[in-house]
Automatic annotation (TrEMBL):
<protein>
    <submittedName>
        <fullName>Uncharacterized protein</fullName>
    </submittedName>
</protein>
<feature type="region of interest" description="Disordered">
    <location>
        <begin position="154"/>
        <end position="184"/>
    </location>
</feature>
<feature type="compositionally biased region" description="Polar residues">
    <location>
        <begin position="1"/>
        <end position="10"/>
    </location>
</feature>
<feature type="compositionally biased region" description="Basic and acidic residues">
    <location>
        <begin position="154"/>
        <end position="168"/>
    </location>
</feature>
<feature type="region of interest" description="Disordered">
    <location>
        <begin position="1"/>
        <end position="29"/>
    </location>
</feature>
Length: 184
């Protein structure tokens, strides 16, 4: 029998977890370090996000405050202009802006009329007649137009009353249905 003088190299098999305490301690330290670094990184990111959000909120509040101040200033100037009985007491920049345009004049004229006058004007407009045309007509035609306006005004009032009654009956009908459904 021959015996070989060569020695075979032995490769140690990997140890199972729990067999090498020094390897486990090193792994624990490494994972602990990673956890601490991860936690520090998360804290840093949260602080940056919070600071950014706070800065954005502060900017938005400042912008809203400026807008509110501008509105308050404009309102105060307008109020002063409206309350001033003497035009010489109104600031110059307000006086320059307060000249009435045609639209403003028309609006003020319209708002100064009673609802009946507005309705009469609307009927005249529907008929294609202006106030000047009406005044230029002979008295018989003026009377006929006045009668037509009165008839139309009564018709519109009847329609408005019917709509009011219909809406109130619908409301009461809805209330009855609601009570019925609630009783179920």
């Amino acid at each position: 029998m021959l015996v070989s003088a060569k020695q075979t190299q032995m490769i140690p098999l990997p140890k199972r977890p729990g067999e090498d305490p020094s390897a486990e301690a090193a792994a624990g330290l490494q994972s602990g370090m990673q956890g601490a670094m991860l936690q520090a990184l998360q804290t840093n990111v949260q602080a940056q996000v919070q600071a950014s959000a706070t800065q954005q909120t502060t900017q938005q509040v400042n912008e809203a405050s400026k807008i509110s101040d501008n509105i308050d200033e404009a309102f105060a100037k307008t109020r002063v202009a409206l309350q001033a009985a003497d035009p010489s007491k109104v600031p110059a920049d307000i006086q320059a802006k307060s000249t009435d345009s045609a639209a403003m004049t028309d609006f003020k004229d319209y708002m100064s009329k009673t609802p009946e006058q507005r309705l009469r004007d609307s009927i005249l407009k529907d008929m294609g007649i202006t106030e000047e045309d009406l005044k230029a007509m002979p008295p018989e035609k003026q009377q006929a137009v006045a009668q037509e306006i009165a008839d139309r005004m009564q018709d519109k009032m009847k329609l408005a009353q019917a709509e009011k009654e219909t809406s109130s009956s619908e409301k009461s009908g809805t209330q009855v249905v609601d009570k019925f459904l609630a009783s179920l």
